[in-house]
Amino acid sequence: MKGSHLFLLVAGLVFQVVGWAVVPRRFRGVLLGLAIGLDLSWTLWFFADNGSLSRYGFWSLSPAATWICLHLVLVPVIAVELLARLTVRWRWWVRCAGGGLFLLMYGWGLGEAYGPPKVVEVSVSFPDLPPAFEGYRIIHLSDIHAGIYAGSRTVGRWGRAVEALPADLVLVTGDFISRNPEEAERPGQAFEGVNPPDGRIGILGNNDQHFGTAEVLRRLRGHGWEILMDEPKVVERNGQRLVFLGAAYPMDLDEGGATQWKGKPWPEGFRIGICHSPGQWPQLLQAGARLTFAGHTHGGQVNLSPVIDIGPRISPYLRGLFHKGPDMLYVSSGLGMTGLPIRFRCRPEIVRITLHRSPVQ
């Protein structure tokens, strides 16, 4: 049994036991039987699903996503009811307050996830930036995750938001899709109106490669995306160069391992790294990247700090701009979602970074 399947089964059984404790006695047999049947059915469905059912109509929600969405509703209901049973005198108030709190949090989470992304403006300076690229603007996107939680309308809105922002180049640091290679059509079509002077480039993330690298590449490239697979792209102005190094995500999960770069020796120029995970930053530094772009962390997606701070467990580079000596890394909070269909205190973002040439110290 796969780890994700085992989690669904165990979590479902735990939920059933706790739920049984708060269900009125006369209904326990019927409701518990239905709950066990539903959770076991979802587990079997998750085993059997090969992606073919998740392409049409209702089945666009995968078994795992359906299970998560249902339990996001049921678990708070059971928790509030259990608390209400323990506080007999205030039972009605506990139900109202608890239900209102969870509705507020879910409303906030859905509003952030599907509301307009924030535009983050960042300026970075390097003494060795070629003069021809003073004021060069790069739009950084990440983790679109088209599919389960990001349909054509949602991805289309993101595309129009990027189209409204002037830039010299647009890059995506991976995870165009959630599950099926066909989902690459959504970012493919949504960004066709985005045509900066130096094009649209990107690399593939773990989701893109896990579910069908060749098909995702074919579809994205068919819509004008230039996808770099451990290779460079050179942008030249007045004989001066920016060299973008696109590192594919290592599916063996050795994010800090060596990359089999193609096309070496590369032309001279100011090097900018593009990778999916910030764990790949060391290998981009070794390749000479002065500025590196990454995603993968979703910025944590659900930010409950300082009460519960899971950020350090995800990555020491969760979101924002980081420095290591004169070199820099920007980690995007991304646009899409994974696991939960919500964001909380972590809005989707479009980052526009402007390059400047600073005086030599």
General description of the model:
This protein folds into 2 domains: 3-113, no CATH class; 117-357, 4-Layer Sandwich (Purple Acid Phosphatase, chain A, domain 2), CATH 3.60.21.10. Helices cover 37% and strands 19% of the residues. It has 10 helices and 12 strands. It has helices at residues 3-22, 28-48, 63-86, 91-114, 152-163, 185-190, 206-210, 213-222, 281-286, 311-314; strands spanning 118-126, 137-141, 169-173, 200-203, 226-227, 231-237, 240-246, 270-274, 291-294, 320-324, 327-331, 349-357.
Please give the largest β-sheet.
6 strands, mixed
What is the rounded distance between the termini? 59 Å
CATH superfamily of the largest domain: Metallo-dependent phosphatases
User: Which CATH top level class of the largest domain fits?
Assistant: Alpha Beta
Look at the helices and sheets and give the structural class: alpha/beta
| Fraction of helical residues | 25-40%
Strand content: 15-25%
| CATH structural architecture of the largest domain | 4-Layer Sandwich
Strand count: 12
Average pLDDT confidence is 86
In spatial order, strands of the major sheet run 1-12-2-3-4-5
Q: Helical region count? A: 10
Which sequence of SSEs, written as H and E, runs from N to C? HHHHEEHEHEHHEEEEHEHEEE
Shape: elongated
CATH third-tier fold name of the largest domain? Purple Acid Phosphatase, chain A, domain 2
